[in-house]
Amino acid sequence: MAAHGPAASTTPNCPLCDGEGGALVWRGQKLRVIRAEEAGFPAFYRVVWSAHAAEFTDLAAADRVHCMEAVAAVEAALRVHLQPDKINLAALGNMVPHLHWHVIARFAWDSHFPGAVWAPAQRDRAPEREAEVAARLAAAEAAMAGRLAQLA
Description:
With 152 residues, the protein is an alpha+beta fold. It is built from four helices and five strands. The protein has a single domain, classed as HIT family, subunit A.
């Protein structure tokens, strides 16, 4: 994990300004990657911009490129180490208007597939398969961190 200072600007009562937002995987000068604690989805990551910004176009062009390269690094590590059926990318920000990208490894057996993780469940959870994925996260996160450090 790279060691850099706190966010350049924060907004009171913003959960992504006030805290990490999940288990910290890597922190750089401009962004961090966290593993979210979302039941049923062990490989649910967020790329969180450090300074409080609500929209992607609030960033300078070079920062937008940097942010998307980080999203791609997380996606690539998940694909290599977890072999998911699909990767979901989303930047909604309706509930938390602080720029962050969701990068979620999805599997045909997960409780909501092929629907969104926020949609109604389509089947029961598969705890044993979730545990198998969780056991491979350390390697995926090490790969993420290595690539993200190269980008920083």
